[in-house]
Amino acid sequence: MDAVALVASLIVAAGVGAIAATTHRKRHGRRMFVRIAAGDAWARVNAGPLVVEAVVLAAAAVVIANTWWAGRPDGSGRISTLDPVARSTDAAGLIAAVAVIALCATQFAVIAWSTSVTTRKRGRAG
Fold it and tell me: Of the candidates 108, 103, 121, 119, which has an alpha carbon nearest to the alpha carbon of residue 49?
């Protein structure tokens, strides 16, 4: 079930990323090409989408850590170590972290692909 959720999340992330990249290319493609042709660094040209990915990754890390911390058995007796939910917090936290990292990596790949396609298309047209 976890693998299916991860694969479905990756498919959705790739689809949404492709739509976002296409929209971004149509709006800012010429400026992106000019900046790359002028010698700007790839990361500087794509600063906006990369900042969004960093914010998403940071927010997800906080949510995962907070949820894991709240659900783990801490020895105080408040949450029993025999509770199946408490016993699964480590695995659930790890799976959530892997899913978020995979989603951000997918979006990063879409940004890189979009930049290279835009540069190639604009370079051929001119």
Answer: 108
Range of the structural domain that residue 59 is part of:
2-125
User: How do the residues of the chain divide into helix, strand and coil, expressed in percent and rounded to 5?
Assistant: 85, 0, 15
What is the spatial distance between Cα 54 and Cα 44, in angstroms, rounded to a whole number? 14
Report pTM: 0.69
* Residue corresponding to tokens 């699964």: 88
CA-based max dimension of the chain: 70
Tokens 């959720």, located at residue: 5
Altogether, the residues listed in the chain come to a count of: 126
pLDDT tens-place string over residues 53-111: 899 889 989 988 888 887 777 666 666 666 676 677 777 788 888 888 888 888 888 88
Residue where the block lists tokens 């990915």: 53
Which range, of 22-26, 41-45, 99-103, averages the lowest pLDDT?
Answer: 22-26
* The total number of structural domains that make up the chain: 1
Q: Which two tokens stand for residue 62?
A: 């906080």
